[in-house]
Design goal:
This protein is mainly α. The protein folds into three domains: 91 residues, no CATH class; 146 residues, Hypothetical protein af1432; 200 residues, no CATH class. It contains 19 helices and two strands. The two termini are 33 Å apart.
Amino acid sequence: MIGPHFIGHPGPMQYGAADLSAGQKKPVDPVFGTGEVLFFGRISVWLFLDHILSFVGLDIVNESLYLSPQDQPVNASRGPKHRCIRHYLTIRGFGTYHKNNTQRGKFKIIMTIYDLTEFLRLSSALNYNLSAASMNRYNVLRFILGGKSLHSDRQKDKEHKAIVMDALNYLFSAYSHKRRRLGPMAVLHPLRASAVYAKAPRYLNIVDILSALLHDILEDIRPQDFENHEWEKLESMLYELLGKLDQDDEWRLMERLQALTRFESETYYQYIGRLLDRAKNIPELIQIKLADRLDNTLDMRIDIADPIEGIDFFENLFQILFVENYKGFDPESDHPPSATLNGAKRLYQLFKNAVLLSMIRQKDTPPRDNSSQLFFKAVSSASLKEAQRTFMHILGYHHTDLEKARALLLDAMDYCYKGRIDAITKVTEGQTLDGLFSTYFGPVHSKTRNEKLALLYDNKPLMLEASVAFIVIFLSFLNDPEFYVQGITTKGILPD
């Protein structure tokens, strides 16, 4: 969440217009004429300037906008009026941009990364280490990296891992009082998302793993959530962490964090569109965002095991449709207590996944490398399983009349088989699923959307059919490399 409170936030951490290697501690900021810009101010100024440049049709990731280090002006006394934006960015350490040329080879999958039971085991292991009286950062690092190196040189690998442990220390402090919507510690999300991301590439590097770990800090970590002395300590920790990186690595990390941050003024569609534009030069952004969505999808459950583990969804579906003496699905346990994230809100999260996957397919940024393909399929598969869980939950607890369930399934089957689920539609009379996305999931304002989701939650027959629709959508993503839901654009969803 980027706002003016980050820009020029007063405090003791002073950082300004000096080459990082010059050793100057309290230089004058070349744009704002002050030495009182904290590190978050430093990031946010850069993001703010990026917005300005984007507005006038320029892009600060273009190398041609920057002076080379040897061309940097050395006279720091001329003041802000005589400095240009590209000079500001250059002396901030953004003067050179190098594509990440880390080779991506064939890889092994240690575990099925979209398996909910494995995900719950990972959460439990991380939670155990975080809850220990004496927290061992190295154990957490081992869970995340899974034994992989961050550099081919042994000494460099050791140094990079030490920096990552500093990042973990920062995250533990920054998220110490925060919780996820369902209650678990908020720090688990960046840790798990990073662990999931780290499983796919054969080779890891420090910039990508730090990007995964810190991908939410500009939205989640805000000064108003902390006492002044706490905020200053966090700023200091982050500043020191970034100071340990090479200048090029710092630049590349900044670039990735900017791309991964959703601004307050952006809709989800605009944000994903901007992210994918950047991903044309930085494909790792797609992988990190998909790992983020994969964790968010699996994190909708806080069960101790997958609620449909050992249940054959398609067998139950077949029996409803074809077996006259089928007794119906009888869950082994009572209905779970009401949760903050109900079935309709879970379906909305699946809608967000469908938006992301559809925009990836449309944006000329299809996942071509093995890692991106793995994550694309993993998000599709995890979403498919979650839609099945929602269907079975409704069938077992809310809509137990098999004759009515059969009629709803046949209606949904006819609708999907005609291809109507492949596009955003308007509400029409006589078609239950027409207008599903545009009516219930499409509103960009959260208050309106939550009101619509409350209506959907009360309409269990529609939720049952909506679950089927999502099952078909995510199976289509897996079956057809050209499939996407038509009508999903950077401007929002546009019904046919």
